[in-house]
Amino acid sequence: MMTDNSRISGTEAARSASAFPAWPLPPDPTAAPTARSIAGRLSAELELSPSVTDDIRTIVSELAANAVLHGDRWSAELWARIGRRNRPHVTFTVFDAGPWRGPAVLPAGPIEPSEACRGRGLALVSALTAEIGGRWGVHPGRARLGAPGGPGRDPVFGKAVYVAVPLPLRFLIVPEFGAPSRGLR
Question: pLDDT digits over 37-52, tens only?
């Protein structure tokens, strides 16, 4: 696990079969730009298109802002994982120790116009995720970076909100033993 904020990159770690990089998010308004930077750099390293990278940055920064504003800001983490089940994809997850309240439910139909500047974040996440062919959701989770106070403490449980985005099919190719690879092994 990578926990050093100075090391934003995580593609090589994410490409190994056992890697599950995680980064702590600051418990303040810088959480969203921090998450946006990490997601943008990882998306660029994965050679996703600039428009998909921009959408991922927006989605992940919205999830990070929600974790800090509405969850437990002191436990916010960003996780990244590359998977190959069914189709290669990258999953970004934002965890916080706020209470699990069940699956997210968006209002059916269009959102009424309003003067309000808040309350539309998950609708934006849903729309952008659909636009790039991904999926998103929320599930109960456990902190990856450990409990405050260090090892040996009780695990921290909460909720994990994720977005999974398809990767180019070249990530599905598994080379023969000994052959050079750009994809996952």
Answer: 999 999 999 999 999 9
Specify whether the CB–CB gap between 9 and 29 falls below 8 A: no
Q: Going by C-beta distance under 8 Å and a sequence separation of 6 or more, which residues neighbour residue 10?
A: 2, 19, 21, 23, 38, 42, 80
Q: What is the pLDDT of residues 170-184, one digit of tens each?
A: 776 655 544 444 544
CA dist., res. 152 & res. 142, Å (int) = 15
Considering only CA atoms, give the Rg of the chain: 17
Furthest-apart CA atoms within the chain: distance in Å: 60
Question: DSSP string covering the chain, please?
Answer: ----TT----HHHHHSTT---EEE--SSTTHHHHHHHHHHHHHHHTT--HHHHHHHHHHHHHHHHHHHHHS-GGG-EEEEEEE-SSS-EEEEEEEE-SPP-SS--PPSSPPPP-S-SSS-HHHHHHHHHHHTT-EEEEEEEE-SS--TT-TTSPPPEEEEEEEEEEPPGGGG--PPTT---SS--
